[in-house]
Amino acid sequence: MSGLAQAASGRAVPSRGFNLPGWLDRKDGLAPSEAVLEKLRQAGFETVRLPVNDTLISAGDTAGLRLIHDGVTTLVQQGFDVIVDMHPSIDLHTALRDDFDTGAERTIQAWTILRDVIADLPASSVYPELLNEPPMENTAWLPLRDKLAENLRSKCPLHTLIWGPAPYQGIWEIGDTPPLADDNQIAAIHFYAPMAFTHQCQTWDISSPLARIANLPFPATKEMPLVLERIAELRAAGDEQAAAMIEEQLSTPWTEAAIASEFAGLGRWSAAHDCPVILNEFGVLNFCVDAESRTSWVRAVRQAAEANQIGWTYWELDQGFGVIQSRQSTEGFDNSMIAALFGTDGGG
Question: In the chain, where are the structural domains located?
């Protein structure tokens, strides 16, 4: 399909994508309208990363499995490549962290059920992702990763398997992570650096200093008057934690060059291991950041990925990080964000 980037290995990698949480990972999930999907294709999107929830996957729930099958089929019929991402529920995340053997068995069981659905979907456009942000150390994750891959391979010999390093799928974690012993795989990383910029004003953990950081620009250095003003405001309010976070994360300036350097290193890992790579999460919250800073960061990350033959899927479609207002309406597309993702800069 045209959404495939060409990796250094010469193998194809899905790209030009967006994440679509809130549909097949929830009992009350909301599907995108056909008109919105069509407009997204016209805008340039060619891949959908689709989180699925382990608690909604059970052998007896044929209706739930049919929902996943039909949802993926709908996207494929619209011309999308689809990454089926095992995004662990809170319960599974807790089990993997606190009771690993139980969590590992639950993960294997979920894939044992879901692999039959995947097996019935086209290997040329459907990509199973073993586990999002595995909440464990690599020493525990790598044996589980291999078991999950073997489990899937028994029914899905031709599908390309996607996996990421533990525990955050961070770009900094891939260097110490060997690829699968499999010729048909893609390594997946996430990139949100610096989080003081990408996650400012976040709302889901009000105890985090990120919830109290606002209006920081990109690019930025710690000497910029605007940055100094923000830090002074936080210290005046007695918030040393948030002020120190900004200073620490700005010990290296936030620039396009810094981002390019990170992805050049990732490209070297890909070439050294003959393993294609996808950046399947990156994004900036749209709560309290100026539009130009937001689009500048997104453009810089997308360009850096493409310069190193790394596929990408933006996080996410229509929630806090989104590029449209609603998956149900063709109105409210953020044209500046779409331009950042598909600009006429040689990368799009």
Answer: 4-205+259-341
What topology does CATH give the domain 4-205+259-341? TIM Barrel (3.20.20)
Cα–Cα distance for residue pair 245/195, rounded to 1 Å: 9
Predicted model pTM: 0.95
On whether the CB atoms of residues 174 and 261 are closer than 8 A, the answer is: no
Q: What is the pLDDT of residue 60?
A: 81
Report how far residue 347's alpha carbon sits from residue 211's, in angstroms, rounded to the nearest whole number: 33
CA 202 to chain centre: 17
pLDDT tens readout for residues 241-284: 999 999 999 999 999 999 999 999 999 999 999 999 999 999 99
280, 313 in Cβ contact below 8 A? yes
